[in-house]
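Re: [help] complex structure
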Amino acid sequence: MSSSAEPQPKLFTPLSAGDIDLRNRVVMAPLTRNRATPGSDAPNALNVAYYRQRASAGLIISEGTQISQQGQGYIWTPGIHSPAQIEGWKAVTEAVHAEGGKIVAQIWHVGRVSHVSLQPGNKAPVAPSAILAPTKTYLESGFVPVSQPRALAAEELSGIVADYTRAAENAREAGFDGIELHGANGYLIDQFLKDGTNRRTDAYGGSIENRLRFPLEVVDAVTKAIGKGRVGIRVSPVSPANGVSDTDPQAVFDRLAAELGARGLAFLHVVEGATGGPRDIAPFDYLALRRAFGGVYIANNGFDRETAIEAVESGRVDAVAFGKAFIANPDLVERLKRNAPLNTLQTETLYGGDARGYTDYPFLAEKAA
Ligand SMILES: Cc1cc2nc3c(=O)[nH]c(=O)nc-3n(C[C@H](O)[C@H](O)[C@H](O)COP(=O)(O)O)c2cc1C
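Output below.
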């Protein structure tokens, strides 16, 4: 209970991100759970229940959702490129909206982080350069090394931009409030941005300007299609996720943030530090990034109640995204408000499976009862 003597922390107050109005600043981070319908990769009733339970977030960012079959890197992740997938997502967005929540689709092309068995015609996954990722993917048989990718021809890029555009349009058709471009964690956009994975010698590689070219072509196409006020992007400047690295991330991402700011994007969502790991893995000035962008800044990675309240209160960030805490606590916002204890995360049910470890985490009242 809040009293007049104790004003509620700013974390629990509304925020406008472009055309999207959040009722609080507690954001649900994108979380892959590999529970879409096998075969169609369409969201189903279980996925609807999961998102409905979490609708009190100020904004839900959906799990990574492939824009095309080529963009898929893991089994049973949902897509947003077929009619069945759009229909499946409609039920999710309707459920979230019925609870008064907001939800954007995280649209995703994994680039080299894939396996031939998931690719059209069992062909090689695609990447800026033909460099094998030192990482694993998740298949029906469990975790296996990803496949050797081939380098994309420059002529293929417009087709991928078109896939992003169609995915953004499909997301709107499915009732999403907008989209988040997945530019983080070593997937296709991040692979283009960083010089460890982008060794191209054409207009899409080399200088920072060139490495930004494909990501900004995607940004320009999707904002033209659905409006800049409904487009955000997630980045992870220093995260080594999926084996990416850059020799000067500050320069790359400050420039990117300035370009995004000039385009008036709804929000910039930043994984600060190593995704799911140390926040201080490498020196990086996130305040400079935020200033370069100039719009709504959502921070993520390793926040708890205290650090989230402090980060928003101080004005360093506009909102905080929680990942693992939202998996284990459907009513995370209420728990943070009341400073109530959190449920423990079950790690063995993260990827794939059924309702267990997905929709059966208790709400506060249930636990008390
Ligand atoms: C099970 C699981 C699935 C994830 N899936 C995604 C995803 O689809 N897209 C993404 O950008 N990040 C994904 N992440 C990263 C989280 O969004 C987040 O950055 C990370 O968990 C750190 O935040 P936290 O400390 O609040 O959990 C995933 C993390 C976990 C644990």
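The longest strand covers residues 59-66.
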